[in-house]
Every structure is written in structure tokens, then in C-alpha cells.
Structure of ABC transporter permease:
Amino acid sequence: MVETTTLPAPNLPKFPLARYLKNQPDAVEDRVVLHAPQAIAYAAGSSEVQRFTPTNSLDAWLLRSPQGATTVDIPAHFVSGDDPIVLTGPKNAGGLLYVHVGKGAKVTLQEKWASGGHVLGIWLMLVVEADADVNWLSYDSFTADTVLVNRTATLAANAKLNWTLAGFSHNSGLNRVDVRLLGHNAEVTVNVGVLASGNQHVNYTTSVTNEGQHTVGHINQRGVITGNAHLMFNGIGHIIKGARGSDAQQENRVLMLSQRAEGDANPILLIDENDVTAGHAASVTRVNADQLYYLMSRGLSATLAKRLVIRGFLEGGLAEIDDVRLKKELFATIDRTLVAEDA
């Protein structure tokens, strides 16, 4: 077992990772359930843990307790069609999930977690081979007390990843997304939509590293905060030396609904190459009174007007979800949360 103190900490600005790593993750072994065509290779068991090699203290923590490990292998040139490949996390456990997308495949995947428990750790490792096109949705609705999620992805040449993360959980902790654009012309867009409520303290750190030439990394994070919750967004775009012709853009926007809510938006750009384009935007604000007044002047109640404003704000992070039933479920969750906060 690798101790967390022997490895460097990942780049997580303003997040007290060391304090969280003092907690022992729940020692519950279970597996992720796969719903997919038979052509998709699937394996689960302790032998699959060997695919996960820790490079930082968070990785090591995720391997500290026995964890259920699942691997999914999507063959080269596979096309998923209209039906997504669905991965569902266990009811009361975290776990390790390794997904390999073969060369030239075109797939849509949905990853869903609603796990309960005390302290959970999730590690997703996504490997996208050359010329593959992946549309990935991560839907988190954890009920556990504390959850540390580490989602990592590597993209080979000409690979494309459109990643949407919907965070509608009740836990405190961390949700980290780290994407490395290794091959030339690789592209990723990470869209994040989060609703933080109650007494949650949660950090979302999304980082994209442009390593290949002419790579494109875009980050778009939107968060709404109610009650006593504290939500922090970190966006990190890093263009390394030699990644000529690359582009790194990001937006981090937070909307607070109560006087007790706390929000942070921290855009970070690290540029080590001259021939590139990069930009960022960030905002932390409260509900626009003019928007509410306009809607109320058209006969809407204050409560309904506020819900519409919030839906419109979060849509910026969830617009890529084309599953109508799932989007209705997300908006129903928003409505239930706001009703509970107003009660």
C-alpha cells in the first residue's frame, strides 16, 4: 500500500485535501453495473486494481481501502448509436472504474452515482484512443456524507471528448476532473453544472493540460448555491512548452441564492508556449433582481420566477445533455431543492 504522504498532492487550489485524506474510506467492495451491447468487454474484481497506479496523494488514498474495481473496453471503430452505454455505481460504495475507448470508436456513455455511506472514494480513469469521439455524461447524486471523486482522462491524436458533469449531490468533499490532451489535434470540452444546498462544502476542480500541438481545451462551470452551502470552482488550463497552436478557454460562474451561501470562482491559466490562444472569465453573483422583476411583471410568482432564472443559469453547464428524460429528472431535482430551501 502506498501511503499518501510519500506522493505529491495534486493541484487543488484552496482545498484542504490533507484534512480530508485523514479520513478512512469505507471498506465496502462492490462493482459498477454495465448496461451495454455484448461487444463491450467488461470485467470486475480485485485483479482489475492493477490498472490504477497512484501518482499523487489523492490517488494513493483512493487505493487505501479495498475497492471494487471495474474495467470496460470499447473496441476500435465501435459505434453506440442512439442508445448510450450506461455505467451505474453501487448503492453503498465507491469504487474504481477504468474505461478504454478504442481507436475510431464513436460512443455515448452515461455514468451515474447515487451511492450512500460515510466516506466514499471514486476513481474513474478514461483512455480515449486516436480518432475516437466520446460523449460522456457524469451524473452525481450522492447521499453519502463525504465523497472524493477523481476523474482522469487522456486523449490521443485527433480524439474528441465532450464531457458533461451534473453535480446534484448532498455530500461534502471534492470532485476533480483532470484531462490530458496528449496527441496532436485532440479536443475536449468539459461542461459542469452544480447545485449545492444545505450545509454542503464542495470543491470542483477541472483541469485541462494541452500537451500535443493544435489541441483544444475548453472548461465551462456553472454553479448555484442555496442555504448554508459553500461551493468552490477551480478551473486550470495549462499549455505546456511545445504545444504550439493550442487553445485553452474557461468560464467559472457561481450564482448565490441566500445571504448565507458562499461561492468562489478561481480561473487559472498556465501558459508555457507563445504560439497559442487562451482566455478566462469568472463571476460570483446573486440572482439578478431585474430579471426577477421582469418575469414577475408578466404574472409569474416570485418563486417560479426564481426557478426559471436558476434553470437558465444552469443550462449553460447542462446544455449538452440530449437525454430528455434525464434532463427532466435534473430540473425536477432543482425544483425539489428550492422548495425545501424555501420551506
Summary: The first strand starts at residue 33 and ends at 35. DSSP finds five helices and 18 strands in the chain. The mean pLDDT is 92. Helices lie at 17-20, 57-62, 289-297, 302-318, 324-342.
